[in-house]
């Protein structure tokens, strides 16, 4: 009987085992395509609530084996596409082909920028936007600033050319230029430690080209703890990797201005789990304004290669940039009307949308640098030279441990040259101003010896901004380890380290010029006094403020800790703390000028080595031969951020967050005492925000309300001091909709900002508009929707030129347009028009202008510039 029972048990076990094995043998397979029928590799396919899943191979094919019979929810996800979700029943092998829909604003997209752990937009308690390839193409940006204007909450003064733009975020001020509180990144690491180093702004070393796969931007939120010196936000340019084979090559030509540009990029798998991407651009041209010579010249090359392993990947990347672009500084404009209702117009012979103080007659600059006579080429413009090499890795170590890290070294140098209009007026007024400051003698003539008598009767006092960027090299690394404590709680511990060199020399000079366009303005010469077209090799009208040499090094070590907790199935908490430890050391030298020795003799610099100190040479400031002011400073601060996200359902969520962070000072934005310590070591920001993210029938809607307080100390801006406490509150609204052939993206940001201290308490911060908005409708047509027409409307309401709120800068809106026609498979022709209707938009005014004499010095957006691009995609 016992043997019989054992036999029956054995048979039953064999039967159950065989049944289990049989049940586990079902396979789910298929292909994944986009809406155009293209197969997509690298798509994640999972059975929700299980550990089973896979990714599509290089042919877009997937297989999930050994699936037990039953009901499942299958989810397919890929960056830049809506998640595909389908309820399935498995009782035998199942074939399921999947189509995923591209959507750069998808709430299902996984975000990697400025978060403790990567999550979908819907699950993240931060306000974040993404800009995809199609949106970049539609915006047709000529600079990073023009691209960032389409991001809600960010006001970008993108009128200066390709670099050196000013950015503010949600009312956090543009008090000293650049982006003190906004961190610009490439592939998750800062481009520069400081975003507002004078003439070394982060966007100077950034070029927008076809290497960019997408842009992620967060405002406020966890930016305080996830990067250094970016508490107001992070914008991260994420490169293509070549995981999906394909590439493009395109030739662009100016239709109404002179430019020629070649863009190329290609990426492909080259083995199992091994793939690469390479791309860049080359270009030459005058640029969208008339300068009289080719001011844009150079290019960029970027490459990366990735090796995937079973439990992670390793990627290395390289970048070389050597690109010269024209910098457009404030220039003469007509100013009429009243301070509260002014009108900015062209001047006789000078168009403020297409002209500039640049001229074929302004070529060399002259100065004394490091004790030696120096000449630089004004035509170099903004000429960054950067060679970068980096690596990143990410591995799942098992037992709920993960590690990832990245590091990059960049060797940065270059030149920064541009003519700046310091004063404009009648010839007699400008001549008297210059003579009084410099002691200029002799008759004032043109370079050919004829009397200086411009046809419009106007002259301008020009500063040659002449900056040598000897060394802005940096090294960044960020390594973090994550441990899942249980199914609901994860802890991340990381360390960010940075070294930033700042070795920059300012050696500026001054000249008089007529106010004339077409790049043909002539210089004024004081007979027997001017040299090389300049009346001074310094800045006498500004008290020779601007001969300087910075040679400093910042070292940063920032450990941080983050916690991610799923409180309930719908409620998620994340919090993080960052400990910033900074050391800065080096020297700062200033130009010195002394006219008389102890015996009353002239002291100067014998620039032409003729053994005689002329009147002109007696006013040349030189960098002192002593070591300069020693800098030795250490400081630290703590930043923290905490947020809650409640997922109402699969299509909507609400979140709230409070953060407090700070941004350190670049060496040239601070004052240092005799003890080597900075007057203000860092500026603090506290921020609170609440938001709604909602998926609609035909799109998405994101709404965020925010409040911020900035405690900013006094800082330097060239020859003046700025800085105030600020407070702001506002609302961001961002949406994206699709209605068949029609699509529309847009955003509007309302900001009520206020100066919260000092003599201007209660006023609005300078250049801060109440409303900033953009709207981008598109229409796709053709049998396969291969043709496209779109416009982008970019606008701002009025703002004030200065903190005293005296002069208004009028609001404006301008339109960019793009039309793209597919000629044949892979080959397309597109026409892009920036500022289609030649709108005048003023972004900056020096001082408050002079209504009485009808003149001001201002910076304006460039007028219409149209290009044609022939592109082949393969």
UniProtKB/TrEMBL annotation:
InterPro entries: Beta-barrel_TonB, Beta-barrel_TonB_sf, CarboxyPept-like_regulatory, Plug_dom, Plug_dom_sf, TonB-dep_rcpt-like
Membrane topology: Multi-pass membrane protein
Iron listed as a keyword: yes
A GO cellular-component term linked to this record: cell outer membrane
Domain annotation TonB-dependent receptor plug: ranges: 121-234
PROSITE patterns tied to this protein: TONB_DEPENDENT_REC_3
Ranges for domain TonB-dependent receptor-like beta-barrel: 340-836
One annotated GO molecular function: siderophore uptake transmembrane transporter activity
Compartments reported by the entry: Cell outer membrane
Record's keyword terms, sorted: Cell outer membrane, Ion transport, Iron, Iron transport, Membrane, Receptor, Signal, TonB box, Transmembrane, Transmembrane beta strand, Transport
Superkingdom of origin: Bacteria
Signal peptide coordinates: 1-23
UniProt record similarity statement: Belongs to the TonB-dependent receptor family.
PANTHER family: CATECHOLATE SIDEROPHORE RECEPTOR FIU (PTHR32552:SF89), FERRICHROME IRON RECEPTOR-RELATED (PTHR32552)
Entry protein name: TonB-dependent receptor
Source species taxonomy: Bacteria, Pseudomonadati, Bacteroidota, Flavobacteriia, Flavobacteriales
């Amino acid at each position: 009987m016992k043997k019989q029972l054992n036999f029956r048990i054995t048979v039953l076990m064999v039967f159950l085992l065989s049944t289990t094995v049989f049940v586990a043998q079902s396979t789910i397979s298929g292909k994944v395509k986009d809406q155009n029928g293209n197969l997509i590799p690298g798509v994640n396919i999972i059975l929700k609530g299980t550990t089973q899943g896979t990714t599509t191979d290089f042919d877009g094919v997937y297989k999930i084996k050994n699936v037990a019979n039953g009901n499942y929810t299958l989810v397919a996800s890929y960056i830049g596409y809506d998640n595909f979700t389908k309820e399935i029943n498995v009782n035998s092998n199942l074939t399921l082909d999947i189509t995923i829909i591209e959507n750069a604003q998808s709430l299902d997209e996984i975000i990697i920028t400025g978060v403790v752990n990567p999550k979908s937009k819907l699950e993240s308690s931060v306000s974040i936007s993404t800009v995809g390839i199609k949106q970049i193409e539609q915006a047709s940006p000529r600079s990073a600033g023009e691209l960032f204007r389409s991001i809600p909450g960010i006001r970008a003064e993108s009128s200066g050319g390709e670099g050196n733009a000013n950015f503010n975020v949600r009312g956090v001020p543009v008090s000293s230029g650049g982006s003190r509180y906004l961190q610009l990144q490439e592939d998750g690491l800062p481009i520069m430690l400081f975003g507002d180093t004078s003439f070394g702004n982060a966007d100077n070393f950034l070029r927008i080209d076809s290497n960019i796969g997408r842009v992620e931007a967060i405002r406020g939120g966890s930016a305080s703890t996830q990067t250094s010196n970016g508490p107001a936000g992070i914008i991260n340019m994420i490169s293509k990797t070549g995981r999906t084979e394909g590439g493009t090559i395109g030739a662009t030509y100016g239709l109404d201005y002179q430019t020629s540009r070649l863009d190329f990029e290609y990426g492909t798998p080259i083995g199992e789990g091994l793939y690469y991407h390479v791309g860049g651009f080359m270009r030459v041209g005058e640029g969208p304004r008339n300068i009289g010579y080719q001011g844009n010249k150079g290019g960029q090359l970027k490459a990366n290669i990735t090796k995937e392993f079973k439990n992670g990947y390793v990627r290395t990347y390289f970048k070389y940039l050597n690109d010269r672009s024209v910098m457009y500084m404030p220039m003469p404009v007509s100013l009429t009307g009243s301070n509260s209702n002014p009108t900015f117009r062209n001047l006789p012979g000078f168009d403020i949308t297409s002209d500039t103080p640049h001229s074929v007659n302004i070529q060399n600059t002259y100065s004394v640098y490091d004790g030696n006579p120096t000449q630089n080429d004004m035509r170099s413009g903004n000429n960054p030279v950067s060679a970068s090499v980096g690596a990143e890795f990410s591995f799942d170590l098992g037992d709920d441990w993960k590690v990832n890290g990245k590091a990059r070294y960049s060797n940065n140098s270059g030149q920064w040259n541009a003519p700046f209009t310091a004063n404009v007026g009648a010839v007699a007024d400008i001549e008297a101003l210059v003579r009084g400051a410099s002691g200029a003698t002799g008759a004032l003539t043109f370079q050919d010896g004829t009397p200086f008598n411009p046809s419009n009767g106007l002259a301008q006092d020009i500063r040659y901004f002449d900056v040598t960027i000897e060394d802005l090299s940096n090294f960044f690394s960020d390594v973090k380890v994550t441990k899942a404590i249980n199914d609901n709680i994860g802890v991340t511990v990381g360390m960010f380290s940075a070294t930033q060199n700042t070795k920059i020399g300012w050696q500026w000079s001054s000249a008089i010029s007529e106010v004339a366009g077409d790049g043909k303005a002539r210089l004024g010469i004081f007979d027997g006094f001017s040299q090389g077209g300049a009346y001074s090799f310094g800045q006498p009208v500004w008290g020779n403020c601007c001969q300087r040499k910075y040679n400093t090094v910042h070292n940063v070590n920032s450990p941080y800790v983050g916690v991610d907790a799923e409180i309930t199935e719908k409620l998620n908490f994340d919090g993080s703390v960052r400990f910033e430890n900074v050391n800065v050391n080096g020297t700062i030298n200033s130009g010195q000028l002394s006219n008389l020795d102890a015996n009353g003799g002239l002291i100067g610099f014998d620039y032409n080595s003729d053994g005689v100190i002329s009147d002109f040479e007696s006013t040349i400031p030189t960098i002192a031969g002593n070591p300069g002011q020693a800098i030795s400073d250490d400081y630290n601060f703590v930043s923290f951020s905490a947020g809650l996200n409640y997922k109402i359902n699969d299509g909507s969520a609400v979140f709230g967050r409070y953060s407090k962070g700070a941004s350190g000072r670049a060496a040239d934005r601070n004052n240092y005492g005799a003890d080597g310590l900075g007057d203000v070591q860092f500026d603090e920001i506290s921020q609170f925000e609440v938001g709604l993210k909602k998926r609609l029938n035909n799109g998405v809607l994101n709404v965020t309300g925010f409040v911020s307080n900035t405690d900013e100390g006094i800082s330097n801006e060239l020859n003046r001091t700025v800085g105030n406490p600020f407070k702001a509150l506002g609302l961001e609204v961002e949406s994206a909709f699709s209605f068949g052939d029609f699509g529309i993206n847009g955003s509007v940001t309302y900001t009520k900002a206020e100066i919260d201290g000092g003599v201007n308490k209660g006023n609005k911060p300078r250049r801060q508009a109440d409303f900033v908005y953009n709207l981008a409708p598109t229409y796709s047509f053709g049998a396969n929707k291969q043709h496209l027409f779109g416009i982008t409307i970019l606008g701002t309401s009025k703002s004030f030129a200065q903190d005293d709120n005296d002069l208004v800068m009028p609001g404006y809106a301008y339109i960019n347009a793009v039309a793209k026609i597919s000629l044949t498979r892979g080959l397309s022709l597109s026409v892009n028009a920036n500022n289609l209707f030649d709108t005048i938009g003023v972004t900056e005014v020096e001082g408050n202008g002079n209504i009485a004499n009808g003149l001001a010095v201002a910076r304006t957006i460039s007028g219409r510039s149209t290009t044609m691009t022939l592109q082949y995609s393969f």
